[in-house]
Design a protein that fits this description.
By secondary structure, the chain is mainly α. It has helices at 16-34, 39-46, 51-67, 69-78, 82-102, 106-135, 140-168, 171-190, 199-202, 218-222, 225-241, 244-255, 260-289, 292-311, 315-344, 350-379, 381-401. α2 runs antiparallel to α3, α3 packs parallel to α6 (106-135) and α7 (140-168) packs antiparallel against α8.
Length: 416
Amino acid sequence: MKLPPAAGGRDPHPSTQSQRGLDWFIFFLADVQTGFGPFVAVYLTTQKWTQSEIGLILSIGGIIGLIGQMPGGAIVDAARSERLVAGLAVATIGGSALAYAAWPIFPVVALAAILHAAASCVLGPVIAAISLGLVGPHAIGERLGRNARFASLGNGVAAGVMGAVGYLLSSRAVFVVSFAFAFATLLSLARIRDREIDPEQAHGALARAKPDPDATSVLHLLHRRPLVVFACTVFLLQLANAAMLPLMAGIVTERSSAGAPALIAICIIVPQAIVALMSPSVGRKAQAWGRRPLLMVAFAALAVRGALFATVHDPSLLVAVQVLDGVTAAVFGVMTPLIVADVAFGSGHFNLAQGVIGTAAGIGASLSTLITGYASDHFGHGIAFMELAAAALLGLLVVWLLMPETRLAKGSERGS
């Protein structure tokens, strides 16, 4: 079946205003979300919370974030206005930030953590949906690369701003700043013209002369081999990657507690810079070369990084090794929604499919920290890092042997 240039007769070339609006929406959203990272533990500690209470709050957010992935995607697929869903989610996160700052008591913070996690489950799919609805399936690679660049820039700027605010004012002020950034995020969202977002394209649907129950069946989508194999690769990615930097940070802190915070900050900033530089070219290369070669590069970089962490002890070299983290993050930041768009386009369940991949990622990340912590305690840091490198090599083999190429050819539809 030939893929139409733009469903519904819409202009396949969105305006500069809408494109820029999406850029800044992603940038400021990263600013909003950054306050809910490590700053939560720091802030609650200053409010005399116990580590058990802080751990419970973080666990609540993690559990909601895991089980909410597929429902979040289904909500976006069911919505007729992606901008409305995005606006409600951002407002919810802004309100959660204000609740943290204003009432740091357990019931309020627990409710805020639940609302923040639930809203975040919607935001990932809705950004990809708006992107696909604006530019269509054949230009989505470059648009996703642009998304990753602005998200990375937003994360880097926000980390600096939040750190400065927390140092100069207070850890409570971090959440007030997050609340303020929510307004900038909503203003940027308003710049995206709703009429330029094709709702059918945004959900990965196609206009059909007559209904095709097979092509639009959720069960049929979930049984597609490329989606199942890709879910396995994302699981292995997170299994290999999620615990790597935290484990390295713990080792550095043990060896040099005074210099550890600065070194860890640099190790976070370096990959963000690489992602910002690489992501647009990753989107372009994905269309020129296909998806599989880039996935293999990402897993190879992750495996080498794990092996180097097991053997390198010089702090300056550890920072250099983090360049490889940027390579992996840049590739998967673009490839994850791109491959899902390839596989799910035509089904009308693009965002539900993103939820499937998000669930696989969450399970992999949870197991990564659990398994690696046990291995490090009982067998040593070196063995733990080599286990992570082995998981990355297994991911490389899965891509090489099992993952089909999903790139959509011009004028074609991926339907199986």
